[in-house]
Amino acid sequence: MPSSSSILSFLGLLAMVSGHSVILNVQGIAGTPASVGFQVDPEIARNCTSISPCQQDATLIRDAEIKANVVNECGRTEINGNIDIGENTENALSANAVTQVEAGTQMTVTIHQVNADGAGPYACDLVEAGNNGVITQNLTVANNVPGVNGFSQAKEQDFNVTVTMPDTLACTGSSAGNVCTVRCRNNALAGPFGGCFPVQQVDTTASKNVASAVDTNLSLEKVQAQVAQDKQDLPAAIKAVQDAGTPENLSAAAVASSVLGLQVTSSAAPVQTVDVVTGIAAAAATATADASNNGKKGKGNDKNNQRREVSNFRTLADVLLKEYWLTRSILVAFYA
Ligand SMILES: *[C@@H]1O[C@H](CO)[C@@H](O)[C@H](O)[C@H]1NC(C)=O
Ligand SMILES: *[C@@H]1O[C@H](CO)[C@@H](O)[C@H](O)[C@H]1NC(C)=O
Ligand SMILES: *[C@@H]1O[C@H](CO)[C@@H](O)[C@H](O)[C@H]1NC(C)=O
Ligand SMILES: *[C@@H]1O[C@H](CO)[C@@H](O)[C@H](O)[C@H]1NC(C)=O
Ligand SMILES: *[C@@H]1O[C@H](CO)[C@@H](O)[C@H](O)[C@H]1NC(C)=O
């Protein structure tokens, strides 16, 4: 979690961003559901170029921010901040909004260009494990959005590009065990703009993940940088929890959340038991997930996900709410 000063400088930065594009629709195998870009809000108007509302779900995906551990590989939107890949993927699965693919499938990706620097060319790549942060392959993009260096004079316009899944494909992510994350972005200097979306592979057997087979890691340098950042952020987070405890603050936070108005469909997740010998999880007997989140975006209770939280927050109340959840999870971890 960045310090308050970095949040403030972020907000300053965001105010200068003035371009965008949105992934409105992705169709893999014909007849399967369509995917939508992570955090793309169907309620946001597409008939204007202004920052508010038409750029609010713009997704920025900047390598420097990824490297600085401010965001993950899927970046952030102006209205909702850091995109939680795991949460978005599970929400999409639950809402039956994940398109299906096989190796070699040609997908039609509809990119909405809001204004000049949402133009092409777009490059797409793939996280086959879904949200482990490892880009495994680049994808071929045909029929690209017109543009050079992310610029053209097109605006408020939809373009269909063709993105081909590779011949060697092994999607292993999500609770389904067969979901990849596809990322597409342009090369605009104010961006890069674009987005990520999930695709579900149907020509392989879904993966049953085993902890000992997870082979990604962070360098010692990155781990230490993360620890240092967390230590620096902790006092502010604790203070935020204390402040957020007041009824005034909680109701302010509730108003902020309702303004954001995100709806998710929650479905129960099965409880699995891991085999002592193989480490493979057996199919579950019971389904007892807490669906009390229904209708509102979960606020950070995402153990499944990378802990890079935060970017821009619409209101201070939202900052406090996020700080609250972070500190809560840190304290829970301390006392566990
Ligand atoms: C723009 O789209 C919104 C809905 O997304 C609609 O309410 C509004 O009337 C439209 N404005 C114009 C000028 O067409
Ligand atoms: C994927 O594309 C990026 C540029 O966008 C390049 O740096 C990288 O080397 C490519 N990876 C492969 C495996 O071709
Ligand atoms: C893009 O493709 C979709 C089908 O996925 C189609 O409905 C739509 O009309 C196409 N849009 C353009 C601008 O070609
Ligand atoms: C783990 O990290 C080290 C150091 O960064 C690197 O050399 C190694 O390739 C990584 N292993 C995997 C499986 O990613
Ligand atoms: C939190 O509530 C206090 C009053 O209890 C108020 O002074 C403060 O401005 C509130 N902070 C936010 C961010 O709403």
UniProtKB/TrEMBL annotation:
Signal peptide (from-to): 1-19
Alphabetically ordered keywords of this record: Signal
Top-level taxon: Eukaryota
PANTHER family assigned to the protein according to its UniProt record, in alphabetical order: GEGH 16 PROTEIN (PTHR34618:SF3), SURFACE PROTEIN MAS1, PUTATIVE-RELATED (PTHR34618)
Protein known as: Uu.00g025650.m01.CDS01
